[in-house]
Write a structure and sequence with these properties.
The longest helix has 14 residues. The chain is elongated, with a radius of gyration of 21 Å. Helix 1 packs across helix 3 and helix 2 crosses helix 3. Helix content is 28%, strand content 34%. The relative contact order is 0.14. It has a six-stranded antiparallel beta sheet with strand order 4-5-6-9-8-7. A two-stranded antiparallel sheet has the order 1-2. It has two domains: 64 residues, Arc Repressor Mutant, subunit A, CATH 1.10.10.10; 160 residues, Chorismate lyase-like (Chorismate lyase, 3-Layer(aba) Sandwich). By secondary structure, it is an alpha+beta fold.
């Protein structure tokens, strides 16, 4: 298998991360890269496509490839932390906003019901929220919360903090979550709600969250624009 495109990709990533190419700089043309590294146009295009998918560059038709600002926000995945709690640390900057795009109580689709281990008539709250950082809409959160645990929700609660309400007002204890991270093609819904800036990929964090009595009460699909976040974990050798 031809791995030349990975070598070119890694070379260019190293130059971007070491500021040899800085934000808004134009990369050398496809032909210049071909000549410098003695590779084919197809190899160069594969490398550039990979750079674009991973948030390093933006390709503009007729103009070339431009380096993006790779200063990304650290987004923890190891704990059970709300967006508001992360925002309060200041790690996402000062200009952070939550926009509630949808709130309703529904009988969920079969895949959601199955994931939440629900019977046929059990209802869930569906909450759709967009997270804006520095005036850019970069996260789409879709929450499904089992109604038998949370009888009532309002737009104001969803705009502030679901977890503060669930723990502070309802007296429930959120204990742990199972998470899965994938990279997927962006959907029309992603493009509708987020400022995608031409990105065709989205980072998806799926979470199943449990109360301290092991009751599964929430499924969340958090969809992140790929250029804005580094997903971090803390691990200790036992």
């Amino acid at each position: 298998m031809d791995k030349k495109y990975l070598n070119i990709y890694n070379i260019l990533v190293n130059k971007i991360e070491n500021n040899e190419y800085q934000a808004n700089d134009k990369l050398p043309s496809e032909k210049e890269i071909m000549n410098e590294y003695n590779v084919s146009r197809d190899t160069v295009r594969k490398s550039l496509n990979m750079l674009e998918q991973n948030g390093y560059i933006q390709k503009t038709k007729g103009k070339g490839s431009f380096v993006l600002d790779i200063g990304k926000f650290n987004f923890p995945v190891s704990g059970v932390v709300s967006f508001k709690e992360i925002s309060a640390t200041g790690k996402l900057g000062a200009n952070v906003k939550t926009i509630v795009e949808g709130l309703d109580c529904i009988i969920p689709k079969k895949n959601i019901a199955r994931g939440l281990e629900l019977a046929g008539e059990d209802k869930v709250w569906r909450v759709v929220r967009v997270r804006s950082i520095d005036n850019e809409k970069v996260i789409l959160d879709k929450d499904y919360i089992v109604q038998k645990f949370v009888e009532n929700l309002t737009y104001d609660i969803c705009k502030e903090s679901l977890y503060s309400y669930i723990e502070g007002e309802l007296g429930l204890k959120i204990a742990y979550a199972k998470k899965e991270i994938t990279v997927q093609n962006a959907t029309e819904e992603d493009k509708k709600y987020l400022d995608m800036k031409g990105f065709e990929m989205i980072v998806v964090v799926k979470s199943y969250t449990y109360l301290d009595d092991t009751s599964l009460f929430q499924y969340t699909e958090s969809r992140h624009r790929p250029d804005k976040f580094v997903f971090v974990d803390f691990a200790r050798r036992c």
